[in-house]
Amino acid sequence: MTLVLETTDLKIQLRLTDDWFTVCDLSTLLPGRGVAALLPDGRQAAVFADRTGRLYAIDNRDPFTGAAVLSRGLTGTHQGRPFVASPLLKQRFDLESGQCLDDETVRVTAYEVKAA
After folding, report:
1. Residues 26/115, Cβ–Cβ less than 8 Å
2. What average pLDDT does the segment 10-34 reach?
3. pLDDT tens digits, residue range 98-116?
4. Per residue in 74-98, pLDDT tens?
5. Are 11 and 115 in contact (CB under 8 A)?
6. What is the gyration radius of the CA atoms in the chain, in angstroms?
7. Between vectors from CA 57 to CA 52 and to CA 61, what angle results, nearest 5°?
8. What are the backbone dihedrals phi and psi of residue 28, each rounded to the nearest 5 degrees, phi first?
9. Residue 74 β-bridge partners
């Protein structure tokens, strides 16, 4: 059996301040896998799609280690909330709010995201 990726003209966009910034094609995202996107100011965002097609974007930098690795983390849910676990120290970050689920004093930036 041969699998063919579905192609689409839809682009993933993040809201940065008052404007939308295109980061990748929707077809780049696979459910449960992240993609790192370089932002105009040099930061990186970790962009995710879940199995229902819902989109999320948070800062890619792990605040505990300083490494830009959250896009490579494992995704899951905790009490109905989607999260990504850092591949380094395994802290979980809520994909909707950026709040660390394992340390309430830590948060990463969460971005408004859409496919257009």
Report:
1. yes
2. 94
3. 999 999 999 999 999 999 9
4. 999 999 999 999 999 999 999 999 9
5. yes
6. 14
7. 135
8. -70, -25
9. 85
Q: What is the 3-state secondary structure (H, E, C) of 15-47?
A: EECCEEEEEEEHHHCCCCCEEEEECCCCCEEEE
Q: How far apart are CA 14 and CA 77, in angstroms?
A: 22
The structure's pTM equals 0.90
31-44 per-position pLDDT tens digit:
989 999 999 999 99
Side-by-side strand order, sheet with 81-85: 74-78, 81-85, 92-94
* Of 50, 55, 51, 2, the residue nearest 24 (C-alpha): 55
Tokens found for residue 22: 């295109």
pLDDT band per the 50, 70, 90 thresholds, residue 7: low
